[in-house]
Specification:
The protein is an alpha+beta fold. The protein folds into 2 domains: 3-62 and 82-256 and 514-529, Dipeptide-binding Protein, domain 1, CATH 3.90.76; 340-501. 21% of the residues lie in helices and 19% in strands. The protein contains 13 helices and 22 strands. It has helices at residues 3-12, 27-31, 45-50, 81-90, 150-159, 207-216, 303-308, 319-327, 354-361, 412-426, 449-458, 475-485, 526-529, and strands at residues 67-70, 131-135, 164-166, 172-174, 177-183, 188-193, 222-223, 228-232, 267-269, 282-285, 291-297, 313-316, 331-335, 340-345, 371-374, 404-408, 443-447, 463-469, 495-501, 503-507, 514-515, 521-522. The relative contact order is 0.17.
Length: 534
C-alpha cells in the first residue's frame, strides 16, 4: 500500500495529535534531542531539557535514515555520565522501598529492552498460587480493554497488551512488538510482532488484529503481511514509540460466546463468560487451568483488616495503611510513581502566577491524607501550543458566581484541599496567592458523581477542585477530552496544588511484578522467565 494512500486515509481517521505537512521536518522533534516523548511531560530535570530551556549535555542527532531497533540482550541501559546522574537522582531502588517519581520517559538507547529496568521490578518469590489481589472499584467485562477506573486499569493490564511499554524509569521496552523501525525518509513506523504472541484461545495474533484495535481509537495503520504493522510517522512523530504504550491502544479481538474480548496477556479470566460484576472473578495463567489470581473487592473495607485476612497484594493511598503494613512481618511497600495532580479551577481565574501560588500551596499538604507533595512542574495542560487548540478569553466577576467550592464528595483528597482553601480565603492576606478570588463567603460543596460532573461542565460556581493525571501518553488527546468534559477553562488558569501517589503493599514471597511509568503494576511471569533480569 503506498504511503500517499495511507496519508489520505489517515486524514479520514484523524487522531487528536496535531498534523503537519509530511514532507516537512517537524521543529518540535528537533527540540527533543532524542527524547522519546513528543507531547509527553513529566516532573524531572530531563523534561526541562526536552522543553528547550537547557542544553542537552549528551544530545543525540535526529536520525535521518531508517533505524532498526531489535529487542535483544541484557545489561543496563548505556548512558553518559551526565544522564546517569540525572537518573540516579530520580530512581529509588525497590529494596529501599520506592520505585521512581513519575517522570518524563527517557531515551531507551539504540536497542529496545525486552524487559523493564531492574529498578522497576520487585524481588522474586516462590509463594504458591493463587495470589489474593485487592481492587478498590468495580470491574466490567464490557469496558475491556478500555478501563474506566483504577480497578479496571490494574486488571486489564494483566489481560491485554500494547505494542510497547514504558517502565517506571521512562524506558521503552517491548510489548507485542519485538522490534520497530522509525523511518524518517519514508515517514513511517514499522512494528514487527513477537513470534510467540497469541490470544487466549491459542490463535496467533496478526497485523490485522493490531490494525483493527488501533482503528477503534482513531489511529490509522496498515498491515505489511501477517506480522508487520505500518503507521504513518505523523500519527506518532516522537523519536520513540511511546504513544503506542497508551493502554487504550491495547490489542483485543471480540469473539462470539465470550463476554471478555480475547487478549494476549499472561493472564485471562477463569471463565470466558464471567461479567466481572460478580465477586468471584479470578485470573488464570496462560497454559494453566488453576486460578493464579483471586480478585478481592475492597470497597468499603478497611485495608488493614484485609492485610490481616491474608491478602497478598494491594495498592493504597492511605499513609495509615502503609504504616500498618510496614509494622507487620512479611510485608513490604513500594512507592509508585506520582500519578495525579490535584488542581483548582475557577471561571474567574486569571493566568497562573507561580510565584504567588507557591506561597499558599505549601500550606495545603497537611490537609491531604494521601502521600503528597507540592505539585511539580511541568504540567502537560500548560504546554499545548502545538495542539492547535484555542480557548475563549472570558472575564467573569467572581462576586457574580455562587459562592461554592465544588468537589466530588467521595474524594477525600479534594474535599480536604477545598476545606483548607476556604480557610485561606477567609483569612486572605495580599501575597498569599490567587485565593482572593474565592472570597470570604465561600463554602464547600461536596457533590455526588452525577451532580459534580454536571457542575464542573457548566462552570457556574466560584471554583472546583479535582485531579488530573500526571502521566499522559497523548497530551493533545487528553486536552481534547478534558475540554469535552470541562469546556470553559483556559488551561493557563488551572492552578496545580498537590501531586499524590499510592503505595504497593506486597506480601513477602510474591512472584515478580513490574511497575510502569503511569503507575501500572504488571503481574507477568513471562517477562522474566527466559530473559532474566538485566
Amino acid at each position: 500500500m503506498g504511503l500517499e494512500h495511507l496519508r489520505e486515509a489517515g486524514r479520514r481517521h484523524r487522531s487528536f495529535e496535531p498534523r503537519a505537512d509530511p514532507g516537512q521536518r517537524r521543529p518540535h522533534i528537533h527540540r527533543h534531542y532524542g527524547g522519546i516523548g513528543s507531547y509527553l511531560w513529566g516532573d524531572d530535570h530531563r523534561q526541562r531539557i526536552l522543553l528547550g530551556s537547557e542544553p542537552h549535555r549528551s544530545a543525540r542527532p535526529l536520525p535521518t535514515t531508517s533505524e532498526q531497533r531489535p529487542a535483544q540482550g541484557h545489561g543496563p541501559l548505556a548512558r553518559s555520565p551526565g544522564q546517569q546522574g540525572l537518573v540516579g537522582l530520580l530512581v529509588l531502588a525497590l529494596a529501599a522501598g520506592g520505585c521512581v517519581a513519575s517522570g518524563q520517559p527517557a531515551p531507551s538507547g539504540s536497542f529496545p529492552a525486552p524487559n523493564p529496568s531492574p529498578t522497576c521490578i520487585t524481588p522474586d518469590g516462590t509463594q504458591r498460587l493463587p495470589l489474593r489481589l485487592v481492587v478498590d472499584g468495580s470491574i466490567a467485562a464490557e469496558h475491556a480493554p478500555r478501563a474506566t477506573n483504577d480497578a479496571e486499569r490494574l486488571i486489564f493490564a494483566q489481560l491485554y497488551e500494547t505494542l510497547v511499554n514504558v517502565d517506571c524509569t521512562g524506558r521503552v521496552y517491548r510489548g507485542l512488538a519485538e522490534s520497530w523501525t522509525r523511518d524518517t525518509v519514508e515517514q513511517k513506523w514499522v512494528f514487527v510482532l513477537r513470534s510467540d504472541a497469541r490470544f487466549w484461545n491459542g490463535t496467533r495474533i496478526t497485523a490485522e488484529d493490531v490494525v483493527a484495535s488501533l482503528a477503534r481509537e482513531g489511529m490509522w495503520s496498515a498491515s505489511l503481511g501477517p506480522t508487520q504493522v505500518l503507521v504513518p510517522l505523523e500519527e506518532a512523530p516522537a523519536l520513540e514509540p511511546v504513544r503506542f504504550a497508551d493502554p487504550r491502544l491495547a490489542v483485543s479481538r471480540q469473539v462470539a460466546g465470550h463476554t471478555w474480548p480475547l487478549g494476549t496477556g499472561a493472564f485471562r479470566p477463569e471463565s470466558a463468560t464471567a461479567t466481572g460484576h460478580d465477586r468471584g472473578l479470578a485470573l488464570v495463567r496462560e497454559g494453566h487451568a488453576e486460578s493464579a489470581v483471586e480478585i478481592i473487592h475492597g470497597q468499603g473495607r478497611d485495608a488493614r483488616d484485609l492485610l490481616d485476612s491474608g491478602v497478598d497484594i494491594l495498592i493504597t493511598h492511605e499513609p495509615a495503611v502503609t504504616e500498618y503494613a510496614t509494622s507487620l512481618s512479611g510485608f513490604s511497600t513500594v512507592a509508585l510513581p506520582w500519578t495525579s495532580t490535584y488542581v483548582w479551577a475557577s471561571p474567574a481565574g486569571a493566568p497562573v502566577d507561580s510565584a504567588s501560588t507557591d506561597v499558599f500551596v505549601g500550606r495545603l499538604l497537611d490537609a491531604v491524607r494521601a502521600e503528597s507533595r507540592a505539585a511539580a512542574a511541568p504540567f502537560w495542560w500548560q504546554e499545548l501550543g502545538a495542539c492547535g487548540m484555542e480557548y475563549p478569553q472570558t472575564s467573569v466577576d467572581p462576586r457574580a458566581l455562587p459562592s461554592r467550592l465544588v468537589t466530588l464528595g467521595r474524594d477525600v483528597t479534594a474535599t480536604g484541599l477545598a476545606a483548607r482553601l476556604i480557610v485561606l480565603a477567609r483569612s486572605y492576606r495580599p501575597g498569599t496567592g490567587p485565593v482572593a478570588s474565592l472570597g470570604p463567603d465561600i463554602v464547600a460543596a461536596p457533590l455526588g458523581r452525577t451532580e459534580f460532573d454536571g457542575a464542573l461542565s457548566a462552570g457556574r460556581d466560584r471554583g472546583y477542585v479535582f485531579p488530573l493525571p500526571r502521566a499522559v501518553y497523548q497530551p493533545c488527546r487528553a486536552a481534547a477530552e478534558l475540554r469535552e468534559k470541562v469546556p470553559w477553562p483556559d488551561p493557563g488558569t488551572i492552578v496545580p496544588l498537590v501531586d499524590t501517589r499510592g503505595r504497593l503493599v506486597v506480601r513477602s514471597g510474591v512472584p515478580i511484578m513490574a511497575v510502569d511509568w503511569d503507575g501500572t503494576v504488571r503481574l507477568d511471569h513471562r517477562m522474566f522467565s527466559e530473559a532474566g533480569r538485566e
